[in-house]
Amino acid sequence: MKNYDLNSHVQGKSLFIDDLPVPERTLFAEVFDSSIAHGEIIKLDLFEACKVDGVAAIFTSKDIPGENQIGGIIQDETLLADGEVQFIGEPIALIVAESKHAAKEAKKRIKIEYKEKTPITDPREAYKLGLLIHPPRIFECGNVEESFKNCKYVFDGRVDIGGQEHLYLETQGAVAIPNEDGGIKLFSSTQSPTAVQRTAAKVLDLLMNKVEVDVLRLGGAFGGKEDQATVWAVLAALGAHKLKRPVKLVLSREDDLRMTGKRHPYSADYKIGFDKKNKIAAYEVVYYQNSGAVADLSSAILERTLFHAANTYFIPNLKATGFPCKTNLPPFTAFRGFGGPQAMFVIESAIHKAASELGIDASEIQENNLIKRGDTFHYGQKAELTQAKECWETAKEKFQFSLKQKEAQKFNNKNERYKKGIALMPICFGISFTSSFLNQASALVHVYTDGSVGVSTAAIEMGQGVNTKIAEVVSRVFSIDKSRIKIESTNTTRIANTSPTAASSGADLNGNAAISASKEVLKRLIEFASQKFKTDNKNISIDREHVMIKGKKSELTWNKIISEAYFNRVSLSAHSFYSTPQVYFNRETNKGNPFAYHVYGTAIVVAKIDCLLGTYEIESADIVHDFGKSLVPVVDLGQVEGGLAQGIGWLTMEELVYNSDGKLASNSLSTYKVPDIYSVPKELNVHFHERAENKFGPFNSKAVGEPPFMYGIGAYFALLNAIKAARPNKRFDYTAPLTPEKVLLSLFR
Ligand code: LUZ
Ligand code: MOS
């Protein structure tokens, strides 16, 4: 029993928004949304809907007491549509009723007339029309133009990458309860309680101190609740505030799939140049990000794409341009990797194409160009240590890459129907929010008189295990058993100004804050014991629930020292703040030191295709991953396994389909295939590379949430290589996802 939530999860006792006991007189809300992707609302007729038995009220943009504006980075998003609609699923009206059933009945009776405009769904088309969310961004180092002139080989191409549905098990939702003082208490399934608080206050015209947001845990998020949990919480708050009754709003799966944003689809053009030793001399890339109808987090996501343009390779001349293209699809949003995976897929496609043209294995180019100690990334940060090469070499040796290659070759020579392919996938992911100010967290630690401990931080538990890690670090600092430690809900009244739990940084930032607060209390306990025993502080320590004097057990147990300290009026609580040192980035020069550190690793992926059916199997994934010193190995292993499966899903089976009128066609789980237990490679080995020093991670650990997602890219190229074994001269169009249909077509077309 290692995970903090394991018992309650397994017994079905864990509470999510829809399980919370609601107060008496709670109302239920439904959202009426746009059925067209682009146009003007000519007429909205609520008359029949309002007459439905049990309807308390229907609210539109006119009923908003404060600002009808929920855009986080760019102020371009209304809470409820005002005149214009820009995507199918855009909220227009909020229906609040005595029952969910009544609210749904009313929704059917709302009459609306639109004046339709032509929707844009393709980012390149939006770009041509000049429809951008904000001006383009360009990251540049060296001089690509000069360098291309001197290259021995230059290749170019286009890459198209699909989006991805988060499919968190718990759909979006919130419960809002009005307070006696006109304020509101919100239970929200959000990664960002402060975003919910700030936005609710703005929309309701309240001070932030009148809005309390509480989050117990999330049933998954993956980035889908970094920004896009806010709208539902604020809608519930609007209903509760206006009607002075509690309001619950939980989206059905169908509504959630239709109305919420997903991972950004990208289209890209690249040009890559090599010198005579197959070193990458120059790389030029243009990304057309399908941003959706409003900004949401698109600008930050595009920026992370630009940061990860070179993946883990050293490229002296690089120019990366990003266009955030405004289309009439629901706003695309944060999703594990946050734009990084798209960038890494493009450069891996460029390398694969070059290798195919040169008649060599892509791994030769990859190996030849790995970033090493002393190299600088194109944004000016120095690469640390040598983990890129270490992980690569360890993977090749430990998992016998050459032998695997020979075996696949042998297999392919003997088999007509089945072909195998192998790919190596090295990763490098920058850890820190790229908006430097977000790299902050705080913690509040209380020790109660019975020796039990309550810990509050800004971290949101969403299944990733951050609570387990925080309990681990607090137990290490105090040297007490974890059973004494309770991780409290995340609450804006206890912990203010929270950064979202995102960017893989939850355990780093909040773990460090929790360590600092615990150390503060520990210092007071040690001071108290040293006075009691009339000895120097330095002679006192706490070890496995005993106060030690010069390393020897004293009569004071943990329980006794806590009790005595209390009666001697020693404070047993502390609040502490942590901010990542040394991170900065200049958005004019696009240079700086944006990341505390990078996480590295290498996967070897083997795929087998059935050339008759186009079906395939990812046979094995062997991974060497850079964990620093793992805090909780079982949690870290789970993150690598889950990330890999999710990455495989993204590039091989999850196919988002929007019709040209902007309607989501893959709108249910019968038409949108997500990875399941059978999609996980039959053989999956994870080697813990624990050699890196990391002063930014609690107890020398490293962030783990997002980086392993990118190992999934290896599955795509393993599949391409299997296809190549069947059709050696095949020229690929690098499009993802590579579904069985596409595999089949690529074999015969
Ligand atoms: N969220 C964010 C993120 O606001 N900034 C980031 O840099 C980031 N990176 C990864 C995931 N979420
Ligand atoms: Mo995120 S993509 O919410 O770390």
Question: Any descriptors?
Answer:
749 residues; alpha+beta; eight-stranded mixed β-sheet; six-stranded mixed β-sheet; 19 helices; 30 strands; binds pteridine-2,4(1H,3H)-dione; binds dioxothiomolybdenum(VI) ion
Give your account of this protein's structure:
This protein is an alpha+beta fold. The protein has 19 helices and 30 strands. Helices cover 29% and strands 26% of the residues. The strands form seven sheets. An eight-stranded mixed beta sheet has the order 3-5-1-12-9-10-11-20, with helices on both faces. α9 (298-307) runs parallel beside α10 (340-358), α10 packs across α11 and α17 crosses α18. It is globular and about 80 Å long. The two termini are 52 Å apart. 55% of the residues are buried. It binds pteridine-2,4(1H,3H)-dione and dioxothiomolybdenum(VI) ion (MOS). Residues 226, 297, 300, 304, 334, 338, 433-435, 438, 502-503 line the site of pteridine-2,4(1H,3H)-dione.
Bound compounds, please? pteridine-2,4(1H,3H)-dione, dioxothiomolybdenum(VI) ion
Side-by-side strand order of the widest sheet: 3-5-1-12-9-10-11-20
Radius of gyration: 27 Å
Q: Using the alpha-carbon principal axes, give the shape.
A: globular
Fraction of residues in β-strands:
25-35%
Mean pLDDT: 97
The number of distinct β-strands equals: 30
Major beta sheet summary: 8 strands, mixed
Number of helices: 19
- Cα separation of the termini: 52 Å
Oligomer: single chain
